[in-house]
């Protein structure tokens, strides 16, 4: 399926996607990559490695989960009556440039911001055997309820990237969220987890897969050092992300195997039931996405699907005086104006 996720994507497929109605294709505001970022890999790697975002320090808050674990929440507050909650991607955290950039964008517009770290993704390892995964909406629900309980906000908006986008979309489609949830914007979302996982593990994407696997394996080793019940004897045989999900993600979180996990947690199957105005932006040259991650055949008036030719994975770099990336401008516009 490489044809649908590479810079040389099928011309027929591009014409089909980019000729969508205006509200889906965002024709009036397409992303245009800088000339030197001339393929999806460069558009993905450049922001991840070289972007620096100046931001005032977060205020950290730790909350307890119902099962005796904890989540670390990083806040930017200015007595705003709107809150934006930002969800990071696989092996990310609140310090990543794409999170800091989005946080700065909303904070400058008067919003309070909450960038939360999934279990095991802040500086301290979490207490329980479980970690986080693409469908762990119980933790997102807890974070949202915690924010609601502060009784400070008239509205709450959600922003999610990659795995965090899948988390947001699944949360919104599982059941109607509280009325205080105003809008949601998601970017670079592998809404079909199985095919996306296979795509990441393809030879052309080995640099990404190896980086993810090193980080995930390191966490397993560190956790096993204090939780000997976690079996790491076969960790050396884990060669792909699907191997890892079979060996650890699935059994640690109550799934039969990786395929069962992917099937039950892919946001694709929850999109028809979303009742909150929601934006999904994916790109044809995203190295991680397959054709199943472009859900243009789902007709839900609450869901705006935008498929752009360029952008890479969590990329959307641009160079303007305001310092905003295109994804940040698009999220602000959607939350503010629709």
What's the short story on this structure?
The chain is of the alpha/beta class and 338 residues long. 35% of the residues lie in helices and 15% in strands. The protein has helices at residues 11-18, 22-25, 40-50, 97-108, 137-149, 163-174, 193-200, 206-224, 241-252, 258-265, 326-337, and strands spanning 59-64, 70-76, 82-87, 112-117, 155-161, 181-187, 278-283, 303-308.
Topology record:
Elements: H1 11-18, H2 22-25, H3 40-50, E1 59-64, E2 70-76, E3 82-87, H4 97-108, E4 112-117, H5 137-149, E5 155-161, H6 163-174, E6 181-187, H7 193-200, H8 206-224, H9 241-252, H10 258-265, E7 278-283, E8 303-308, H11 326-337
Parallel strand pairs: 3-4, 3-5, 5-6, 6-7, 7-8
Antiparallel strand pairs: 1-2, 2-4
Helix pairs in contact: 4-11, 9-10
């Amino acid at each position: 399926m490489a044809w649908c996720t590479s810079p040389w994507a099928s011309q027929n497929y591009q014409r089909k996607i980019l000729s969508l109605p205006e509200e889906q294709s965002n024709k009036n505001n397409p992303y245009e990559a800088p000339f030197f970022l001339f393929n999806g890999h460069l558009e993905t790697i450049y922001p991840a490695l070289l972007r620096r975002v100046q931001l005032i320090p977060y205020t950290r808050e730790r909350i307890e989960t119902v099962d005796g674990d904890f989540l670390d929440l990083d806040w930017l507050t200015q007595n705003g009556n709107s809150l934006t909650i930002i969800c990071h991607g696989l092996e990310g955290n609140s310090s990543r440039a794409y999170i800091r950039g989005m946080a700065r964008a909303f904070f400058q517009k008067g919003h309070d911001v909450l960038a939360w770290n999934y279990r095991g993704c802040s500086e301290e390892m979490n207490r329980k055997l479980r970690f986080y995964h693409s469908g762990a909406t119980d933790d997102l629900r807890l974070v949202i309820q915690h924010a609601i309980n502060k009784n400070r906000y008239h509205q709450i908006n959600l922003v999610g990237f990659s795995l965090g986008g899948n988390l947001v979309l699944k949360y919104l489609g599982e059941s109607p969220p509280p009325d205080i949830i105003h809008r949601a914007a998601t970017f670079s979302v592998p809404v079909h987890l199985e095919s996306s996982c296979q795509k990441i593990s393809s030879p052309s994407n080995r640099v990404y897969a190896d980086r993810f696997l090193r980080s995930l394996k390191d966490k397993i080793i560190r956790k096993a050092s204090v939780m000997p019940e976690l079996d790491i004897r076969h960790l050396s045989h884990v060669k792909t992300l699907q191997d890892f999900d079979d060996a650890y993600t699935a059994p640690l979180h109550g799934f039969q195997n990786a395929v069962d996990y992917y099937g039950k947690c892919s946001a694709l199957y929850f999109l028809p039931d979303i009742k909150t105005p929601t934006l999904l932006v994916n790109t044809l040259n995203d190295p991680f996405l397959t054709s199943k991650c472009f859900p243009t055949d789902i007709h839900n008036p609450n869901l705006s699907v935008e498929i752009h030719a360029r952008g890479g994975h969590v990329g959307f770099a641009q160079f303007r005086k305001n310092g905003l990336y295109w994804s940040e401008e698009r999220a602000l516009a959607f939350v503010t104006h629709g």
